[in-house]
Design goal:
Length: 103
């Protein structure tokens, strides 16, 4: 199962932030992907509202410990920064991908 199919399958267990209906049948577009997380645009099949979700990707622990070169997890501060950026953004979601991070 690919990542988008997995996210769609899991989304049906969550409710839309706008209309509160289950997100079954939602559209999911991958905006960016890194080793530890991905950013997707989710569009509700019921009301059509789109929102961005950041999904942490967790790999199964290696039986001999973490392999060399594994990046650190996203910090709480980084998630707060992302939340504030998304909250204050006006415009197209794809504009965020081209904009430099705010400080
Ligand atoms: Zn909705």
């Amino acid at each position: 199962m690919d990542l988008i199919a997995l996210i769609k399958e899991r989304a049906r267990h969550h409710n839309c932030l706008s209309c509160s209906r289950a997100l079954a049948g939602c559209e999911v577009t991958l905006l960016s992907q890194d080793r530890s997380h991905c950013t997707v645009s989710v569009t509700c099949a019921s009301c059509g509202v789109s929102f961005i979700a950041v999904i942490l990707l967790r790999r199964r622990p290696h039986p001999e410990g973490a392999p060399a070169g594994i990046d650190s997890a996203i910090s709480g501060d980084e998630l707060v920064d992302l939340h504030q950026r998304l909250r204050d953004h006006r415009g197209r979601l794809t504009d965020l991908l081209a904009a430099p991070p705010r400080r």
